[in-house]
Amino acid sequence: MMELQPVHATGPQETFVLNLGPQHPATHGVLRIKLTMDGEFIKDAVIVAGYVHREHEKMGENRTWAQFLPNTSRIDYLSAMMYTHAYVGAVERACGIQPPSRAEYIRVITSELNRISSHLVWWGAYLLDLGGMTPLLYAFDDREKILDLLEALTGARLTYCYYRFGGVLEDVDDNFIAGTRAFVKEFRPRLRMFRRLVSENIIFRKRVENIGIIDAEMCRKYGATGPMIRGAGVPYDVRRAEPYSVYPELDFEVATDPAADSMGRYKVRMEEMEQSLRIIEQALDRLPDGPVMAKVPRVIKVPAGEYCYATEAARGRFEVRIVSTGKLIPHRIRLRTPCFGNLSLFEEAARGMMLADGIAMMGSLDLVIPDIDR
Amino acid sequence: MTTVEPIRLLLFLVGAASFVGLNAAYLVWVERKSAGRFQRRAGPTEVGYAGLLQPIADAIKLMSKQLIVPPGADRFLFRMAPVMMMPPAIMAFAILPFSEHLVAIDFNVGLIALFAFSSFNVIAVMLAGWSSRNKYGIISAARVVSQNVAYEIPMMLVIITMLLVSGTLSLTGIVEQQAGAFWNWNLFNLAANPLMPVTFIIFFICMLSETNRAPFDMAEAESELVAGAYTEYAGMGFGVFFMAEYANIIIGCALAVILFFGGWHSPIGVFPGVIWFLLKLYLLIFIVIWVRWTFPRTQFYGLLNLSWKILIPVTLFTFLLSSVMIKIF
Hints:
The complex is a heterodimer of chains A (about 375) and B (about 325).
Chain A: H1 7-10, E1 16-20, E2 32-38, E3 41-48, H2 56-59, H3 69-72, H4 80-95, H5 101-129, H6 134-154, E4 163-164, E5 167-168, H7 174-199, H8 202-208, H9 216-222, H10 227-230, H11 238-241, H12 262-286, E6 305-313, E7 316-324, E8 332-336, H13 338-344, H14 346-350, H15 355-364, H16 369-373
Antiparallel strand pairs in A: 1-2, 2-3, 4-5, 6-7, 7-8
Chain B: H1 4-38, H2 54-63, H3 75-95, H4 110-118, H5 121-131, H6 135-166, H7 171-176, H8 196-210, H9 222-225, H10 235-260, H11 273-292, H12 300-328
């Protein structure tokens, strides 16, 4: 791991290279960052990604349209619903399949539940990065309830393959609806408690306020989306910017914060959980009757052409572009994942920061490493 | 007396070493169990009743592990560092008065000796970080030194304030001045210094920082420095650091009890003094654990700013205030 060099061989050096990762507690997986350090200050950061590269895009080129479906939930395992949604949506758009309204509402409910559970993991892990060990357990307490609900519905706890071309696998039952309503009811006070316990803590605020400024300009330059750009004050949300599913019918606000620092991104995510609860409530109220699956041919054949579909995943804009030549298998599947753009700016943003601040900023990017490497 | 002295010394050595060992082992258990409660989980439950044998299992595991010296490390210093960590901590126990009679040596400069011993662990941690030839270790070593330099000053100012109030360097003497009911404790000695509770809080903060405990655990900030100075230590090398860390917490809390909470004096007059001393001691240690599992870690410059910009001016002010108060009354 360490690149050891005898001091006399290189002469007096003012900087040294510090390998942050691939195994480091703060990189949450196998990300490696080569830091050139001047004492405790980061002079330069080179991101070495690709340790968990799994060739998802290439895998798409040698299996049928339906067989690729499980892959999508394994790219960003924390927001599997939204990822499946983008792929399913792209194929539906290409084939002209219109999923029934009930299915669309169920998709919105499960996606938003998934978003909350993803943000909860981030919240716990971020506080862990900052040295607060207890919030993680509190976050997982609530996340467990979401996972139980989704497990009963989909059969999986993390890598759901619930959305299918033309609808969803199974209809929701009364238990799920009652359980979701109960969860929404008990999660609101919990969220308030999180705010009181953590967001207003003076040590926490000193660690994140005005630390890791990433302005809208830098976000645009590197293609950072999601809470990153919203935390810089730009109300860019795919659910509003390029409306999909039944989001246009639902009333929610795009959480933004002009601060552009780690606290801004933190506040945006906390507010998003609140908004997700609102969306879930409305969708449950409006949930129409009817089938959950449209008439779909047994073998999907996508007409030749290029199609794309974007969703707002927990970490930002996830876009699937599919290229079909009219065959049984896709010609090309391109995945535009949010974490790649969100991480790319680390190099520029981390320059001149102290190591601990750099890690506080990296935590606020909410990275999922397999999502970067695909 | 001369024939009794070697026996006393032997008894003390055995007693202090076993007290430190037992406490280090079972404070880990207390810490894990209470951390579990703070985090709404059970903590250790498997080994023995309520996990009570867990520390012993951990100790056996640590002792049976291979001692690894990383390539390129300074072997001698690398092995020396944990050894240097432990003896000063045990020595400090010689001066601590657990009750009127339960004290190994009643030094007339006990307070200074205690500081001399407890300041020693900085060198050990620094050597550990330096000699293990790990960049995280070196960053950690640099942090430990600057952190300890920064926090020794407000701590010393607090001690000088307390010296003004008590007028003696002997720990037994300091405790004896606080005899009687609890309003005689230095913490409530508002006539000498109206800001006494503030002085205590500053002492407590400095103590947390000196012992490298959260939220000031810069030396082993695991999300930044993996394990800091201890990254390369395996087995009992790490175990000794761990024990010494708890020993230092005990010394720090014991000093707080002696200086502020009336030592072995009972607030209500029942039970022997040693029970009250231990009760106060463990209550303070519990607060240390509580703080660790509640607060996030501070940033390094925030830590230094806190010391230089807030704690030192405030302690200087309380120092002046108590000088004036003592002169007037």
